[in-house]
Amino acid sequence: MPIDFHDTVNRRTYSGREADASWRAAIVELVDPVGADVVDVGCGGGTYTRAWHDLGAATVTGVDFSEPILAEARASHGDLPGVAFSRGEAAATGLDTGSADVVFERALVHHVPDLATVAAEAARVLRPGGTYLIQDRSPDDVARPGSPDHPRGWLFEVFPRLLDVENARRPTDIAVAQAMASAGFDSFTSTSLWEVRRQYADREVYLAEIGTRTGRSILHELSDAELDRLVDELRQRLPVGPVVEQDRWTLWLAVRGA
Ligand SMILES: C[S@@+](CC[C@H](N)C(=O)[O-])C[C@H]1O[C@@H](n2cnc3c(N)ncnc32)[C@H](O)[C@@H]1O
User: What is the mean pLDDT of residues 163-174?
Assistant: First the structure.
């Protein structure tokens, strides 16, 4: 069953994590965050809302449609200067037209039913010359094999049916390019990123996170018994000791015309 973002049980699933230096380095190669007005749509617990603030953005507005998740974001990051959180739909944020320099959407678009309307909303909110930046996993990113620093890849080795779930929901290059073009964006580019998701002091800390489905909506597709089996399988594959978990992502960028 897909994750229910509105269930208070899941309110902390995207909290308690910091954006890694690998993400920050990739972002500053693509866009100048200093002094920018940034909108972080599908902000979750606000991990990247804070990161844009730390990179020097003038304002960062985190938007999410889940009130319980937004409440956690506010509690963790709401007191940062220039940072605000607002409840809204990705396709209807409620933000002012032409109010942002950057619209950022990380791990959002595989959850939305109609990417074209989400892209059109980004175009509306951006100023002319503003940057639309989507970060998600393409089917090619998802298919990367598992390894000790990419244990997510093993999920699909243990439960191949999860790959069907991913392939049905993950955006392709063509789908993103078409949505951006239909919304009037130009200068379309895409790049790959291996982002360190989190560093764990010990394998068991990582496995405990897997066992609670934290931050990984795909694990909501498994029964509790299947999740227990997954944890056992991952324990067999991971060496004892620290885990540095990396995931392969795609960053799609387009610029709003004048
Ligand atoms: C996988 S989480 C990503 C959170 C955050 N961007 C990150 O990378 O840590 C997806 C987030 O998007 C939100 N979301 C999903 N569909 C949405 C929609 N249609 N409109 C607004 N927010 C949505 C969910 O509530 C959730 O917080």
Answer: 96
